[in-house]
Write a structure and sequence with these properties.
Layout: H1 10-16, H2 33-48, H3 54-63, H4 70-80, E1 116-126, E2 129-138, E3 144-150, H5 156-169, E4 174-177, H6 181-184, H7 186-194, E5 198-201, H8 211-223, H9 233-249, H10 261-267
Helix pairs in contact: 2-4, 3-4
Length: 276
C-alpha cells in the first residue's frame, strides 16, 4: 500500500491510508530457526489445547523433548499474538487509548445472513517464517466473506478484508470483533460507522463471544496450514484462498446439518427491496 518511491511524502501517504506513521519505519528482526520451530509447536498445542498457558506449554514441550523456559514461551506467544483463552483469547493487543464498545450478540437470535459478521486474526507458521491471517465471517452461515494474509499485524490488512466484504456482500447490521488494537483503531471503527454498522466487541477474556471464528481457525489449521509448509506469504495466500473456497462451497458443516456455508448463506439470503 505504501509506495516509498512515490513523490507524495510517506507521512501524507500514511495519513491518506489511515496507517500509523510508526509502521513506516518498522524493520522486522529475523527470528531464529529454533524459535520458528518452537512457535510452530506452540501454535499446534494452542490450537488443540487453547486453555494452556505458558507454564503448561513449557511442560508439554519438555515432554516432547524441547528444553525451554516459561518466560521464553511467553515472549514467543506475545510475538505470535496468542494467549490462553481463559485469560485473553484475542490475537491482537488492546490499545489503552481506543474506545471499547459493548458486546451486542449475547442472547441475540442470529437467524439470517448479514445480520452479524465477525472477524479475528490468527498466526500462520511457514517453512522459514510466519504470517497472520484475518477473515470476515458471516455468523449465521459461517461463510468466509473475505480474507487477507500479511507478514505484519498492523490494521491495514484487516481494513482491506472489511472493505472487500462490504463491496461484495453489502453491510451487516452488527459487526463483532475482539478488543485488539487493529479493530478498535479509528480507521477500522470509522469504516463501520460510515456504513451505519453497529459495533460489537467481545468482553475482555470472553473467548466464547467469538467462538465461531475460533472454530474456523481449528479447521483452517488442521485441514490446510499444518499439512503445508508455505515458503512465502504469496504461496500462503494462494493456498489458503483455495482452501477457503472449498470450505465455503464444498465442505459440509456439522452445525449446518451438513450443508456447506455458501449454500446456507445464499439459500437464506433475503431479497433486496424493490426500488420505488
Amino acid at each position: 500500500m505504501i509506495n516509498r518511491h512515490h513523490p507524495l511524502p510517506l507521512t501524507q501517504q500514511s495519513r491518506l491510508l489511515r496507517l500509523s506513521r510508526s509502521s513506516l519505519y518498522y524493520e522486522p528482526h529475523p527470528t531464529s530457526e529454533r524459535d520458528l520451530r518452537l512457535m510452530g509447536k506452540i501454535d499446534k498445542l494452542h490450537t488443540a489445547r487453547p486453555f494452556a498457558g505458558a507454564r503448561m506449554l513449557r511442560d508439554m514441550l519438555r515432554l516432547a523433548g524441547e528444553q525451554v523456559g516459561r518466560r521464553h514461551i511467553s515472549t514467543l506467544m506475545k510475538k505470535m499474538g496468542i494467549e490462553a483463552l481463559y485469560r485473553k483469547p484475542n490475537t491482537s493487543k488492546r490499545h489503552p487509548g481506543h474506545k471499547i464498545y459493548p458486546y451486542l450478540l449475547k442472547g441475540l437470535d442470529i437467524n439470517r445472513p448479514n445480520q452479524a459478521w465477525a472477524t479475528d486474526i490468527t498466526y500462520l507458521p511457514m517453512a522459514k517464517g510466519f504470517a497472520y491471517l484475518t477473515v470476515i465471517l458471516d455468523w449465521y452461515s459461517r461463510k468466509v466473506l473475505s480474507f487477507r494474509v500479511s507478514n505484519t499485524m498492523d490494521n491495514s490488512f484487516c481494513l482491506e478484508a472489511l472493505e472487500e466484504a462490504i463491496a461484495r456482500y453489502g453491510t451487516p447490521e452488527i459487526f463483532n470483533t475482539d478488543q485488539g488494537s487493529q479493530f478498535t483503531s479509528d480507521a477500522f471503527t470509522s469504516t463501520l460507522k460510515e456504513h451505519n454498522i453497529r459495533i460489537s466487541m467481545d468482553g475482555k477474556g470472553s473467548w466464547r463471544d467469538n467462538v465461531f471464528v475460533e472454530r474456523l481457525w481449528r479447521s483452517v489449521k488442521y485441514e490446510e496450514v499444518y499439512l503445508k509448509a508455505y515458503e512465502t506469504v504469496t504461496e500462503a495466500r494462494r493456498s489458503i484462498g483455495i482452501y477457503l473456497n472449498f470450505y465455503n462451497r464444498e465442505r459440509p458443516h456439522s452445525s449446518l446439518d451438513g450443508i456447506p456455508p455458501d449454500h446456507f448463506y445464499y439459500n437464506n439470503l433475503l431479497p433486496l427491496p424493490m426500488a420505488a
